[in-house]
Amino acid sequence: MNHYTKDNFRPAQSIGLLLNKARNILVAEMDNALKDLEITSQQMGILLSLSGEIASTPFELSKLLAIDTGLMTRLLDKLENKGLLERSRSLEDRRVVNLTLTKKGKEVAAQLPEIAPGVLNVRLKRFTKQEFNELGRLLNKFLAD
């Protein structure tokens, strides 16, 4: 089913614009909340993925977080320069780079669950539990291949 046509498409009311605005607002609010830790929301995603052992290589992180490899390299460089993570070559395959959090990186990652929910909850405060669950369901449906 096509929801948009050339006749009814209004860019200012499109789902694409609404999703982009929502993302931009959330990123700005999360970045503001993370400023004392001196990381960004994108860097937070990397730290949480590594600390939760969801991903351990730049490729896995790029795929998981939908970040192109060039930007991922720059983000990892910044985190490494801040002393939050280390890179090492895989012993089995030298082409593979493994990522591990440093002690400082683990300390920063441990603080994130204290910060992120508050930022999200401010945006979700007008949602009922049912609406919250429905939003998650619909976003997952939107993101499905």
Automatic annotation (TrEMBL):
Keyword terms of this UniProt record: DNA-binding, Transcription, Transcription regulation
Gene3D superfamilies: Winged helix-like DNA-binding domain superfamily/Winged helix DNA-binding domain (1.10.10.10)
Entries under PANTHER family matching the protein: TRANSCRIPTIONAL REGULATOR, MARR, TRANSCRIPTIONAL REPRESSOR OF EMRAB OPERON
Organism the protein comes from: Paraburkholderia aromaticivorans
Pfam annotation, one family: MarR
InterPro entries, alphabetized: HTH_MarR-typ (IPR000835), WH-like_DNA-bd_sf (IPR036388), WH_DNA-bd_sf (IPR036390)
Record protein name field: MFS transporter
HTH marR-type domain residues: 12-144
GO molecular function term, any single one: DNA-binding transcription factor activity
